[in-house]
Amino acid sequence: MAGHSQQSNGVGALMLIAVAVICLGIGFFIGTKNTTPTAGSAPGAAVAPSAQAGKDSTKIPVGDSPTYGPANAPVTIVEFTSMQCPFCGRAAGTLKELADKYPNDVRLVFKNFPLSFQAQAKDASRVVMAAERQGKFWEMKEKMFADLQAYRSGDVKDLGAKYAAELGMDVEKFKADYDDPAIVATIDADQKLGESLGVRGTPHFFVNGEVVNGAQPLARFEEIVKKQLGEVEELLAAGTSRDGIYAAMVDKNFKSAPAPQQAERKAEPATEVHMVPVRDADYAKGASADQALVTIMEFSSFQCPFCARGSETIKQLVEKYPNQVRVVFKHFPLGFQQQSEPASRASVAAGNQGKFWEMYQLLYDNQRSLGEAKFEELAGQLGLNMDKFKADYAAPATAEIVKQAQRDGQSAGIRGTPGFLVNGIKVVGAQPLAVFEDHVKKQIEIAEKIKSDRNLSGEALYEAVVEYNKENVAEAAPAAAPERPAAPAPKIADDALSVGNSYTMGPANAPVTIYEFSSFQCPFCARGAETLDRVKEEYGDKVRVVYKNFPLPFQAQSEPAARAALAAGKQGKFWEMYHLLYENQRSFREDGLWERLAGELGLNMDKFKADFDDPAIAQQVKDEAEEGRSVGVTGTPAFFVNGTRVVGAQPFEKFKELIDAEL
């Protein structure tokens, strides 16, 4: 281990009445989802819409695309999907659930949008479109998304033929349709339409023309559908014809696609840096914590085929840099991969018997057959104690380890797998070795300098390098001036900050007041504290320091440390604890550290523990941090010298310049 719904309100009824009146009055039929499907079609699936389905939109046309749900539904959701996109697979299940929950109100329309970097995506689109010719589009789509990892292990056409047989289709016709150039032309036309509408990634949806990006939860889609149903009622009441609802709603909701250059300017910077702690329950390989110059966080799902590929690259990296690179595994099971979370628990259970990395490799080697029986088989291969393995696999504590690792990934913006943090620098996807090597070489150079200059190692070095990368990347980020928020004012108003209940050092009438916003687990804050000590020695009673807690969310022990300092302050020992905390930063993961330090200060332990757990203390920490955010503090350390902002652990000379100007 490393440290070791409901139905729509009234619209459905209105529709049924309208349909009945039309059918009785002029004798034509509009199908609904409850009509008998065509032979071989999915229950509730509609065939390609005819002119009877109503007026199509010229902006986002349904055309001859596969549909699911009644042709006259008041809400039409057009989805642009890449058939190799795992997030599209997740969204497909959500949309099916939505359509089944609103059987008379929602129609789904499928459009192909194969992504260029997903090698089998277009072939997979050919599979589902060939199945559509035999009325099995939705069934085939479901099967293809359920077995994404099979795409890379064989020919997609053969995989589709296998599923076609399982679905009772004419396999020879399926193969002929798969090869039909007309299907390729349909896919290309879908993609061209999507691009003209501003689709850049998948999944991408238009709900009656309203744009929805990404695999949103069911609740979000329900919220939009309910809003759209209300707007449809208003259009019908205003005299819009029933068959013109879809076109009218698209005209109302969709104006035009964003200009390409506009989308580029608003894109997030290519590089992100996040600090994620190494936890006691995490497993690491490669260089030891004290030896490592580069820490790579690997966020993976054992059922993800791209993660298997990424794991091979990471293995090569460790072999090439055995004394510099440490790899820390973080579980990130994907919801649509049913065996990924159980597989993570199996690896943890094996790790409890010293076999994490062995199980890690076996799980990737056996991706296509994962399941509880397979986990036990693999445990047997590793010679594990089976009773203990089964108990640990089922233990709530094991599930919590997996959940915590996933929360760590989510805090760093990880959305899919594999994802990596190289000394905090985010790398997305199964990138080639050269990409990782480029990062590693640069990070080794940076880490060696910080290690030499500050005599750091282990977690303290890791945190310091990540902090350096944050500053460096921020300075090198691509310019996007119109979209970036204004920089905080260099000087704040005299009354923007107040002492309140915060601890101070120096007389209240001192001509210079320095507000310090710090996190006790931040290595740069420790350096800033040393600088302020020198300021006090140099200027004495001319300076008053006001300490404000600003614990950083990615530093797990920073908030408890802040409470420990305030609890010591209740017994007149705040500044003593302040210095002890900075001196013991490298021991923050040590159990009982706060009590040990309180003992060194001779504090009443019962009172210290009670104050440490006092909600009022925790609230003071939150209030001080919020006060910092109100004046633009986003990181630590941050200082205000008579209101002049000083960001970062600046040298003594910077403080001297400002103080002398005030005096």
How would you explain this protein's 3D organization?
With 663 residues, this protein is an alpha+beta fold. Helices cover 48% and strands 11% of the residues. A 6-stranded mixed beta sheet has the order 1-2-4-3-5-6. Helix 2 links the parallel strand 3 (75-81) and strand 4 (106-112). Helix 3 packs across helix 6 and helix 20 packs across helix 23.
Mean pLDDT: 84
The CATH homologous superfamily of the largest domain is named Glutaredoxin
Structural class: alpha+beta
**Count of separate structural domains:** 3
Helix tally equals: 25
How does the overall form come out from the CA principal axes? Answer: globular
Largest sheet: 6 strands, mixed
CATH fold topology of the largest domain: Glutaredoxin
What's the number of extended β-strand segments? 16
Beta-strand residue percentage: 5-15%
- CA distance, first residue to last residue: 54 Å
Family: Belongs to the thioredoxin family. DsbA subfamily.
Protein name: Thioredoxin
Transmembrane segments: 12-31
Biased composition (Low complexity): 40-54
Write the layout of secondary structure elements.
Blueprint: H1 11-26, E1 45-46, E2 67-68, E3 75-81, H2 86-101, E4 106-112, H3 121-132, H4 137-146, H5 156-166, H6 171-178, H7 181-196, E5 204-207, E6 210-213, H8 218-237, H9 245-253, H10 260-266, E7 283-286, E8 294-300, H11 305-320, E9 325-331, H12 340-351, H13 356-365, H14 372-381, H15 386-394, H16 396-411, E10 419-422, E11 425-428, H17 433-454, H18 458-476, E12 504-505, E13 512-518, H19 523-539, E14 543-549, H20 558-569, H21 574-583, H22 593-600, H23 605-612, H24 615-630, E15 638-641, E16 644-647, H25 652-662
Parallel strand pairs: 3-4, 8-9, 13-14
Antiparallel strand pairs: 1-2, 2-4, 3-5, 5-6, 7-9, 8-10, 10-11, 12-14, 13-15, 15-16
Helix pairs in contact: 3-4, 3-5, 3-6, 5-6, 12-13, 12-14, 12-15, 12-16, 17-18, 20-21, 20-23
